[in-house]
Amino acid sequence: MALIDTHAHLADERLLPDVHGIVERARAAGVDTIVAIATGVADARVVVELAERFPGVYATAGIHPHAASTADDEAFAAVRALLRHPRVVAIGEAGLDYHYDFAPRDVQRASFLRHLELGRETGLPVIVHAREADEDLRALLRDGGAGTRGVLHSFSSGAGLLEDALALGWYASFSGMVTFRNFAAAELLRRVPADRVLVETDAPYLAPVPHRGKTNEPAFVAHTARVAAELRGEDPEEFATMATANARALFGLR
Description:
TIM Barrel, 9 helices
């Protein structure tokens, strides 16, 4: 059962020292492809280097909403340059986070709009982080989402944001949260069309049951896929095949 982890923070200090072992364990678990996520310019350069080193690892470039205050013209010029690298397959992680508010909300919104602009310019999908900001994200997608492709990652938001994203032709990706008791978005997982659903770890965060509380890693995405299939009432192998094909289509993977 081949799988793709569509969202793993391999540049994180909890994963980077053991990245060779992490990639090997992922392959042993049937996860032959990992999309390594950037949250800023510095770790975008790290994940690009990892993608050059490891077959099956691909990279993104972008600025997380937590770091939106650093998203000046120089930072976006660096991101734009990195997006030209052949191993970079997406923009982000970008979006809005009103839970922590590590950057002013107006700054987060401006940064996200610039990521959407990059999506239109390059044709690359935008990976979106959304936390407690559904209405503003919906407004920004209405204003700037036309002509873009993207994915709502580690989805746990509301039905309105999901429907708006799906109407744009976007995807929704689900993390280890689907294995948690009383996962709030289970009904929304079932609403996502078969050709738009993805799975991810969001490693090192959100380790799925039976690894909850441990450092997450791409090998564990198989648990997420199995439970997601159960929640959707689908055969696990068929679901895995479908999610893998969706990831290859979205990110242009071979």
